[in-house]
Recover the amino acids of this structure.
C-alpha cells in the first residue's frame, strides 16, 4: 500500500508550489494594477446599430486603395476571390478568403461607380455585382451604373453616400461636391492636397451636416484604443517626446506602382484625371505613380505621416502643432520624382511640453515603431501595446525599489486577441504579436480594420452619431501634414495661427 | 520485460521512479499553466511550424474548430499524462500518450539546419533537442515500468513479482 502511494506526496508538493506561485503572481498583478488603474479588460466594441435601412453607395476611384475599401464594404472583384481560393489551397495559413467570407454583411448596395481608367471601371463594375462573394465561375454581372464624370454620380437619386478613393488632388473638390449634394462622404487620406483646400473643405463639410469619415482605419485598432486609456490614466507621467516612423524598402512601397501594359490615352480620361491642376502632357508614370508628384499628392506627408500622426492624435488628442520643421531629400529613388523619399518632421507642442517627431525612409526596413516617452514609463504602440517603467521614474520609485515593478520586463502588455491586459504575457505570445502573427481583434475575433472603419461610417449614417475620424480630426491631420510639406518645400519653420486658423 | 524488474537494485528503482515523477511533473504543470490561462492557444506555435509536416500543423491553426479541439486535447493530454506518470497510474498507457504528444511537438519544430523559428530557444540545438530527449526518457520509462512497483498501478493491478511469478 505504502509503495503504491509513495509518489503521491510529489503531486502534493507540485500543487503547493503552484498555489504559492499563483498567489505571488496574483499579488504582483494586483499591486501593479492598483497603482496604475488601467482596466485589465480588452476594449470591446459598442452596442450593435440596427442595419435595417439599406444604404446605397457610389464609389469614385478604384485603384489599389479603392479595391481594398470595396472589399472592406463586402464587394470583391471575382478574380481576386479566385486568387485567394488558389492561394488558400496551397497555403492553409493564408486565410484571406475565409476571413472575407466571414466578414459581416453591412446591408449596402453599390449603385454607381466612376473611374477615369476603363480597366479599373470594369473591375469595380464586376465587384459591385458580387453580392455573394463568388469567384469568376459564378458569371457575375455588374449591379452598378458607370458614370463617366463623378458629378453625375453624385447627383444620382439612387445613391445616399459616396466613397472617394481618387488621388489626393481630387479629394477636397469631390468631398465638397458630395456634401453639397447632401450625401455622406468617406474620403481617403491625406484629406487634401493643399492648406487652402483644407480651410474651405472643413467649412463646407461642417455646414452640410453630412456624415463624414476620413480613411484612417487605424482608428479601429484595438491596441490604439487601449493606449488612449493608458494615457488618460497618466501612467507614463509627463510625456516630452513622441517618435513615430515609416520604414519601407521596396519600389512598390516607394510608389513605383506597376504600369498596366494596355493603358494609354484611349482608355484613360487624362483631362478629368488632371482636373483643376496644371496641364501636363499625357504620362502613364504620372497616372499610375501619382504620389511621386506635387501636382497630385504630397508624398510621405499625405500618405504616411498622416497615418502616424492620426494614430497619435487618436491616443493623445494632440491637435495642430504650434510649429513644424521638416527636412529630407530624394536620396535613393532617383526616378524623376519630386517628393522626398527620406523625410523627417519635427512638430512642437510647447503648451503640452512635448515634441512629436516623425522619421521616414523608403529605402530601409529597419522598423522602429511608435514610441511615447514619459518620465515614469514609456509605451511602444503597434499591433500590441507594451508599457515599460522607467528606472528613474519618480512615481514608481518605491514599487521599483521594493521589487514589485521590474524595469527589465514590461510593466504590462496588451496583446490583441487576449481577453485581458497582463503583467505577464508569455515571451512566446509577445514574439508572435510583435511579428504580426496575431492580428487586430474585436471581442476576440480577427477583423480587417478597413472593414471596421467603413462599418463605423455606415453605423453613424444610420444612427446620426459622430465618426471617430470626423472633419475636425481630418482638419488637424491635413493642416499638420501641410505644415510639414510647406516647411520642406519652402525650407523654413512653419507656424500655426490658432486665432485666424491659418498656417503662417 | 516485466520479469527483469525483479532484478532492479533499490537505486535503479529509485532513479527510474524519480525520472518518471520528474517527467510527469513537467507534463502536469505545463497542462495546468495552459488550463488556467483563458487566452492560451496553440495557434501561434502551430503557425510557427516548419519542415515537411508544417502544412498539417498550419491547417490545424487555421480552422477555429480544429484548433479548439487541438487546444483541448493538448491541455488535458498534458494533465492526464502528467498525473499518470507522477502517480504511477496506467503508467504504460500514459507513457505512450506522452510520447505521442512529444512526437507532435518535435515534428512541428524539429531543430534542423536551415530551419529558424520565431519562438526563441533558450539553448543551441541541432537535430536533438530537449523534446526529443524527453521523448526517449519516456521510452525508457515505458520499457522499464515502475508503476506496478512504486505507484497506484500496484494497488489496481498488483505487484507482478509477487502474484505472477
Amino acid at each position: 500500500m505504502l509503495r503504491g502511494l509513495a509518489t503521491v506526496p510529489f503531486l502534493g508538493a507540485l500543487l503547493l508550489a503552484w498555489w504559492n506561485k499563483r498567489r505571488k503572481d496574483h499579488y504582483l498583478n494586483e499591486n501593479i494594477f492598483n497603482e496604475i488603474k488601467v482596466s485589465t479588460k480588452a476594449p470591446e466594441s459598442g452596442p450593435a446599430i440596427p442595419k435595417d435601412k439599406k444604404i446605397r453607395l457610389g464609389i469614385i476611384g478604384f485603384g489599389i486603395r479603392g479595391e481594398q475599401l470595396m472589399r472592406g464594404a463586402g464587394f470583391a472583384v471575382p478574380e481576386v476571390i479566385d486568387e485567394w481560393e488558389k492561394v488558400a489551397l496551397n497555403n492553409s495559413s493564408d486565410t484571406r478568403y475565409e476571413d472575407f467570407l466571414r466578414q459581416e454583411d453591412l446591408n449596402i448596395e453599390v449603385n454607381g461607380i466612376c473611374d477615369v481608367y476603363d480597366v479599373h471601371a470594369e473591375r469595380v463594375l464586376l465587384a459591385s455585382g458580387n453580392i455573394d462573394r463568388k469567384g469568376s465561375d459564378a458569371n457575375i454581372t455588374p449591379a452598378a451604373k458607370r458614370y463617366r464624370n463623378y458629378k453625375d454620380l453624385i447627383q444620382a437619386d439612387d445613391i445616399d453616400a459616396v466613397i472617394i478613393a481618387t488621388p489626393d488632388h481630387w479629394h477636397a473638390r469631390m468631398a465638397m461636391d458630395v456634401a453639397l449634394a447632401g450625401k455622406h462622404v468617406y474620403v481617403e487620406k491625406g484629406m487634401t492636397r493643399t492648406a487652402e483646400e483644407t480651410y474651405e473643405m472643413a467649412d463646407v463639410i461642417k455646414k452640410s451636416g453630412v456624415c463624414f469619415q476620413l480613411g484612417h482605419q487605424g482608428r479601429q485598432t484595438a491596441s490604439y484604443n487601449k493606449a488612449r486609456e493608458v494615457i488618460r490614466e497618466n501612467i507614463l507621467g509627463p510625456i516630452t517626446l513622441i517618435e513615430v516612423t515609416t520604414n519601407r524598402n521596396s519600389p512598390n512601397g516607394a510608389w513605383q506602382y506597376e504600369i498596366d501594359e494596355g493603358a494609354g490615352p484611349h482608355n484613360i480620361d487624362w483631362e478629368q484625371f488632371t482636373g483643376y491642376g496644371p496641364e501636363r502632357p499625357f504620362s502613364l508614370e504620372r497616372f499610375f505613380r501619382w504620389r511621386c508628384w506635387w501636382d497630385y499628392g504630397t508624398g510621405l506627408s499625405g500618405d504616411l505621416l498622416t497615418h502616424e500622426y492620426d494614430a497619435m492624435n487618436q491616443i493623445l488628442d494632440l491637435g495642430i502643432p504650434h510649429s513644424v520643421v521638416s527636412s529630407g531629400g530624394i536620396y535613393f529613388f532617383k526616378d524623376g520624382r519630386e517628393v522626398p523619399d527620406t523625410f523627417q518632421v519635427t512638430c512642437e507642442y510647447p503648451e503640452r511640453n512635448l515634441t512629436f517627431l516623425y522619421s521616414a525612409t523608403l529605402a530601409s526596413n529597419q522598423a522602429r515603431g511608435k514610441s511615447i516617452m514619459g518620465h515614469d514609463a514609456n509605451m511602444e504602440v503597434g499591433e500590441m501595446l507594451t508599457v515599460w517603467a522607467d528606472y528613474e521614474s519618480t512615481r514608481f520609485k518605491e514599487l521599483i525599489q521594493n521589487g514589485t515593478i521590474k524595469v527589465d520586463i514590461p510593466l504590462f502588455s496588451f496583446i490583441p486577441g487576449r481577453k485581458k491586459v497582463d503583467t505577464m504575457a508569455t515571451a512566446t505570445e509577445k514574439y508572435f504579436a510583435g511579428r504580426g502573427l496575431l492580428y487586430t481583434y474585436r471581442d476576440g475575433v480577427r477583423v480587417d480594420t478597413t472593414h471596421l472603419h467603413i462599418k463605423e461610417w455606415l453605423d453613424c449614417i444610420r444612427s446620426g452619431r459622430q465618426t471617430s475620424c470626423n472633419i475636425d480630426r481630418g482638419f488637424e491631420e491635413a493642416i499638420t501634414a501641410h505644415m510639414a510639406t510647406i516647411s520642406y518645400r519652402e525650407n523654413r519653420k512653419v507656424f500655426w495661427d490658432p486665432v485666424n486658423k491659418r498656417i503662417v | 520485460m516485466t520479469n527483469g524488474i525483479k532484478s532492479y537494485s533499490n537505486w535503479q528503482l529509485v532513479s527510474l521512479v524519480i525520472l518518471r515523477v520528474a517527467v510527469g511533473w513537467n507534463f502536469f504543470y505545463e497542462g495546468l499553466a495552459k488550463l488556467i490561462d483563458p487566452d492560451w492557444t496553440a495557434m501561434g506555435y502551430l503557425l510557427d511550424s516548419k519542415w515537411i509536416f508544417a502544412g498539417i500543423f498550419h491547417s490545424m491553426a487555421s480552422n477555429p474548430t480544429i484548433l479548439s479541439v487541438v487546444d483541448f486535447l493538448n491541455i488535458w493530454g498534458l494533465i492526464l499524462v502528467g498525473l499518470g506518470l507522477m502517480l504511477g497510474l496506467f503508467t504504460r498507457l500514459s507513457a505512450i500518450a506522452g510520447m505521442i504528444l512529444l512526437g507532435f511537438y518535435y515534428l512541428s519544430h524539429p531543430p534542423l539546419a536551415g530551419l529558424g523559428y520565431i519562438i526563441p530557444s533558450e539553448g543551441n540545438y541541432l537535430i536533438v533537442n530537449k523534446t526529443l530527449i524527453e521523448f526517449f526518457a519516456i521510452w525508457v520509462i515505458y520499457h522499464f515500468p515502475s508503476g506496478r512497483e512504486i505507484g497506484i498501478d500496484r494497488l489496481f493491478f498488483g505487484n507482478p513479482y509477487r502474484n505472477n511469478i
